[in-house]
Design goal:
InterPro entries: ATPase_P-typ_cyto_dom_N (IPR023299), ATPase_P-typ_P_site (IPR018303), ATPase_P-typ_TM_dom_sf (IPR023298), ATPase_P-typ_transduc_dom_A_sf (IPR008250), HAD-like_sf (IPR036412), HAD_sf (IPR023214), P-type_ATPase_IV (IPR006539), P-type_ATPase_N (IPR032631)
Radius of gyration: 37 Å
Number of helices: 37
Distance between the termini: 71 Å
Keywords: ATP-binding, Golgi apparatus, Lipid transport, Magnesium, Membrane, Metal-binding, Nucleotide-binding, Translocase, Transmembrane, Transmembrane helix, Transport
Cofactor: Mg(2+)
Organism: Lates calcarifer (Barramundi)
Membrane topology: Multi-pass membrane protein
């Protein structure tokens, strides 16, 4: 049958169809055309061509003419050329399958990458060009570079060279220092990771090697307590699951007498080429020196992965560095640019346009006489202060100040700002994409509820269960030891007396607890302890089943919680191997059971079963536990299961139904024969095995219903509520199972109690996706839960429609997501909504998502530091995100918006004065202020007061957290828009005109001093406009007047007329604005001022 094979490649889907076929009617429902996907309220009809093309393809078919080129097409073309050159320079080598000889790296046929981690953006050679490119790709800096270079042409030279080059050099120096510091930090972190020591096995014995020196073919020893022939690994850094997965060693090497014999055999591993898929591996192990040669097939069960936690094992290195699955699934870090920077870049382009228009007007008023083209360029340079060079310096220093404030905030200790260029993004977020395990939850399961149908036990009544268990086992041990029922179920008498008799609560509790203690995949592990003589003894050898050094390992934290609970009520799992397990009763007696069959949990069956034979009595029992949806049809009829499952789910508990069935020897033998036969069949093996097992799963006796809670991180519920009230939409992307994800969405109040949840049915083709999307379309205000596979199908055929629908949901949960898929969802939201996204996670599997989002937040948690190191901001707890966004995000955005516009105002006011000055003097292209006056105006005189805006706050932090609705205003971007910008332009034109004309009118007789008068009034106006920290800068200005003899006449500026006239001009320029501001505040106050009053 034709099928599509999909490979997730760098966050995009590359679909390879084995046999190309158009949309065929036998594959899909033929009536698809009759059911259009209604994406608007009116609904729209899809024609046949719509089915053949993706929305993105339709967008790309627009005409590309001269208009397209001028309106940004040139940028696209330049970007494509750069990408093409970069691709040629660092062309990836083709990945191939490989043969790896055990312990012989030198035998490798080709060179494999180093096993080093590298998170740096630049190296020694690319640092300077890289930083310069990042700076000059902004119109602002490129403009200054052109203006500064123009001063080398004598006919265009306006003032001193340093007035243009000094500020530009300062901007670049500040940026380079900041980037260099970030790079050095990254290098140090990488060095720390690459210097970790590992034990390598060589012919001469064990040696220590650095992580970066490990090669393909090396034998590495990873240590922690030993388990023979098998070990557990935890893959939280790859797929976010913190449960333990069983891994099996190669059978052939297990038979070697000593570790050193690995070098005496001639063996190699043939492995597939490196690939993205973290759930599959194919290879062969071959031992050549045996007669006949030994061949063993290798699967994913025989591999240990990078970034996982393991018990002791000796392994041969197959992939290193860039070719490991975890690195292949991680995208490269990109340089993030904030939305505010892009908005300011747009405004500077508008200013440049205004500057050119003003210059043309000046030349036109001159009458285009003489070398007017040269004059035009001189005017452009004269008015170049319209776009202030200090804008970038002020903003960059502001960003550094915000970062420092965030790190010094005592309310969010341990927060680290790793990317200092985007603190304003925290104030503009609309979508928050969060991981589940370790981010919202602690991944610590607690047993909360046991329900027996007629009676329910919670955490406060567990002691009753304990007393029942103690009682039942006390009865058993008090019977004569000769009795054959020693260690048997105390309820056997009840059973044999007749099936109609209702069992006592005590016996029902006992059966339920026993079933929970037996039906699982948990292995107790005992830490080795040091003996008297100092040598290490294995605890298992002495049967030292003491409680203090026992830990449990299992493939699911739920199972560990259940076994820990049976231990707390008196029935303890003390030992387990592949064929048997032992329980210890409250009185210390050991009960042994043989494991006859085990049916592991799968996401399809949603249940696991075990058949055990009790050693003392020979009774065979089939125990089973699973999700209520799977178990409801298997257990005998009852009237309480569905209702109680619903009640527990509403509390956010994960429910499991436990049942049992007693088997006679004949029944079991018949089953075993059929089961073994099914396992040997070549065709449809899985289906046949499932059918045989299902023949057992009939009319099982329902024992109990259990409820387990995954503990949430501290204050997750209030934080999510705060974010929701702030208008932020939260999407949960997790690698976990659908049921678990739904439970956590409820318990964390990600989905509020009165909201419905729409679980998107699994879809595999276009027709199913079409029907399911239509079904989802009819639901209103309900949360969406969808699995990764279904999501992939929807995005392949209905990308635009699906995203449009999902964005209307109050919450979205995506389960079974791969790391690449998480990043893909982030990019989808960015493309389709144009809103700012934030990703938060704590594991290595979240790195791609964190790097793809506009703003990435990492949590330092149990799953290591990989996410927090790759993120822009690192926090220690999820609850800190509330303050980070509501307080620091708000302040950073508001302050930077005010700062940016104020610095522009500073440039526009001086350009207006220059225009008035030139107009009066017959449109001469002569500068009003020269040399140090201009540099001083942009830096020393007005730098500190303008910069004091970074300390401004419109709302107290407590108020911002109390009324998160204030955050919604920020996402609309009203603090910095063309409207606010035009207001500042009008203010600048008014003030510049008043200052210059005032100086000319009031000082007719002393016209020589016009520079001193207007400049002093200008600086005073700027200081009054900020109305903060005036004293320091006024002092700077007054002190510098003494040294600037070439610009100021000291005898004149100390006279009384000078002082009163300057004060009068300043008053006229500022007073009307203060009055307007007061009236606006009185009659139309902003929302936050109402709160603070």
């Amino acid at each position: 049958r034709e099928k599509d094979i999909t490979f997730p490649v760098s966050g995009r889907l590359c679909v390879t169809i084995l046999r190309p076929h158009r949309y065929s009617l036998e594959d899909e429902p033929s009536n698809l055309d009759e059911m259009p996907l209604m994406m608007s309220e009116e609904g729209f009809e899809n024609d046949e061509s719509d089915y053949q093309t993706l929305p993105r393809a339709r967008v790309n078919q627009r005409q590309r003419g001269l208009g397209w080129f001028l309106l940004g097409g040139w940028k696209v073309l330049c970007g494509s050329c750069c990408d093409c050159l970069a691709h040629i320079c660092r062309r990836k080598k083709e990945l191939k399958a490989r043969t790896v000889w055990l312990g012989c790296p030198e035998k490798c046929e080709e060179k494999y990458p180093k096993n080093g981690i590298k998170n740096q953006k630049y190296n020694i050679f690319t640092f300077v060009p890289g930083v310069l490119y990042q700076q000059f790709k902004f119109f602002l800096n490129l403009y200054f570079l052109v203006v500064a270079c123009s001063q080398f042409v004598p006919s265009l030279k306006i003032g001193y060279l340093y007035t243009y080059w000094a500020p530009l050099a300062f901007v670049l120096a500040v940026t380079m220092v900041r980037e260099a510091v970030d790079e050095v930090r990254r290098y140090q972190r990488d060095k720390e990771m690459n210097s970790q020591l590992y034990s390598k096995l060589t012919v001469r014995g064990k040696i220590q090697v650095k992580s970066s020196d490990i090669q393909v073919g090396d034998l590495i020893i990873v240590e922690k307590g030993s388990v023979l022939g098998a070990c557990f690994i935890r893959t939280d850094q790859l797929d976010g699951e913190t449960d333990w997965k069983l891994k099996v060693a190669v059978g052939c090497t297990q038979r070697l007498p000593a570790v050193g014999d690995l070098f005496s055999i001639s063996a190699y591993v043939y492995a597939q080429k490196p690939q993205l898929d973290i759930h599959s591996f194919e290879g062969n192990f071959t031992r050549e020196d045996a007669d006949p040669q030994i061949h063993e097939s290798l699967s994913i069960e025989n591999t240990l992965w990078a970034s996982t936690v393991v018990a002791q094992v000796i392994g041969v290195v197959i992939y290193t560095g860039k070719e490991t699955r975890s690195v292949l699934n991680t995208s490269y870090a990109k340089n993030k640019v904030g939305l505010l920077d892009l908005e300011l870049n747009r405004l500077t382009k508008a200013l440049f346009l205004a500057q050119v228009v003003l210059s043309i007007v000046m030349v036109a008023l001159q009458g285009f006489v003489g070398p007017w083209f040269r004059n035009l360029f001189r005017f452009v340079v004269l008015f170049s202060y319209i776009i202030p060079i200090s804008l970038r310096v002020n903003l960059d220093m502001g960003k550094s100040a915000y970062g420092w404030m965030i790190m010094k905030d005592e309310n969010i200790p341990g927060t680290v700002v790793r990317t200092s260029t985007i603190p304003e993004e925290l104030g503009r977020l609309v979508y928050l994409l969060t991981d589940k395990t370790g981010t919202l939850t602690q991944n610590e399961m607690i047993f909360k509820r046991l329900h027996l149908g007629t009676v329910s036990y919670g955490t406060d009544t567990m002691d009753e269960i304990q007393s029942h268990i103690f009682q039942s086992y006390a009865q058993v041990t008090s019977q004569p030891s000769s009795s054959s029922t020693s260690g048997a179920t105390p309820s056997r008498k009840t059973q044999t007396s007749g099936p109609k008799v209702r069992k006592s609560v005590s016996s029902r509790i006992h059966e339920a607890v026993k079933a929970i203690a037996l039906c699982h995949n948990v292995t107790p592990v005992y830490e080795s302890h040091t003996g008297v003589n100092g040598e290490t003894e294995s605890a298992e050898a002495d049967q030292d089943f003491s409680d203090d050094n026992r830990t449990y390992q299992a493939s699911s934290p739920d199972e560990v919680a259940l076994v820990r609970w049976t231990e707390s009520v008196g029935l303890t799992l003390v030992n387990r191997d592949l064929t048997s397990l032992q329980l210890k009763t409250p009185s210390g007696q050991i009960l042994s059971f043989y494991i006859l069959q085990i049916f592991p949990f799968t996401s399809e069956s949603k249940r696991m079963g075990i058949i055990v034979r009790e050693e003392s009595t020979g009774d065979i029992t089939f125990y089973m536990k699973g999700a209520d949806v799977a178990m409801a049809s298997i257990v005998q009829y009852n009237d309480w299961l569905e209702e109680e499952c619903g009640n527990m789910a509403r509390e956010g508990l994960r429910t499991l139904v436990v049942a049992k069935k007693s088997l006679s020897e004949e029944q079991y033998q018949d089953f075993e024969n059929r089961y073994n036969q099914a396992k040997l069949s070549i065709h449809d093996r899985t289906l046949k095995v499932a059918a045989v097992v299902e023949s057992l799963e009939r009319e099982m006796e329902l024992l109990c219903l259990t409820g387990v809670e995954d503990q949430l991180q501290a204050d997750v519920r209030p934080t999510l509520e705060l974010l929701r009230n702030a208008g932020i939409k939260i999407w949960m992307l997790t690698g976990d199972k659908l049921e678990t994800a739904t439970c956590i969405a409820k318990s964390s109040h990600l989905v509020s109690r009165n909201q419905d949840i729409h679980v998107f049915r699994p879809v595999s083709n276009r027709g199913e996706a079409h029907l399911e999307l239509n079904a989802f379309r009819r639901k209103h205000d309900c949360a969406l839960v969808i699995s990764g596979d279904s999501l992939e199908v929807c995005l392949r055929y209905y990308e635009h429609e699906f995203v449009e629908l999902a964005c209307q949901c109050p919450a979205v949960v995506c389960c079974r997501c791969s790391p690449t898929q998480k990043a893909q969802i982030v990019k989808l939201l960015q493309q389709h909504t144009a809103n700012r996204t934030c990703a938060i996670g704590d594991g290595g599997n979240d790195v791609s998502m964190i790097q793809a989002a506009h703003c990435g937040i990492g949590i330092e948690g149990k799953e290591g530091k990989q996410a927090s190191l790759a993120a822009d901001f690192s926090i220690t707890q999820f609850k800190h995100i509330g303050r980070l966004l509501m307080v620091h995000g708000r302040n950073s955005y508001k302050r930077s918006a005010a700062l940016g516009q104020f610095v522009m105002h500073r440039g526009m006011i001086i350009s207006t004065m220059q225009a008035v000055f030139s107009s009066v003097f017959f449109f001469a292209s002569v500068p009003l202020y020269q040399g140090f006056l201009m540099v001083g105006y942009a830096t020393i005189y007005t730098m500190f007061p303008v910069f004091s805006l970074v300390l401004d706050q419109d709302v107290k932090p407590e108020m911002a957290l109390l009324y998160p609705e204030l955050y919604k205003d920020l996402t609309k971007g009203r603090s910095l828009s063309f409207k606010t910008f035009l207001i500042w332009v009008l203010i600048s034109v008014y003030q510049g005109g008043i200052l210059m004309y005032g100086a000319l009118v009031l000082f007719e007789s002393e016209f020589v001093h016009v520079v001193a008068i207007s400049f002093t009034a200008l600086v005073l106006t700027e200081l009054l406009m900020v109305a903060l920290t005036i004293r320091t800068c006024l002092g700077c200005y007054l002190a510098s007047l003494a040294f600037l003899n070439e610009y100021f006449d000291l005898s004149f500026i100390t006279t009384w007329p000078f002082l009163w006239k300057v004060s009068a001009i300043t008053l006229v320029s500022c007073l009307p604005l203060y009055i307007i501001k007061y009236l606006k505040r009185k009659f139309s106050p902003p929302s936050y001022s109402k709160l603070s009053s």
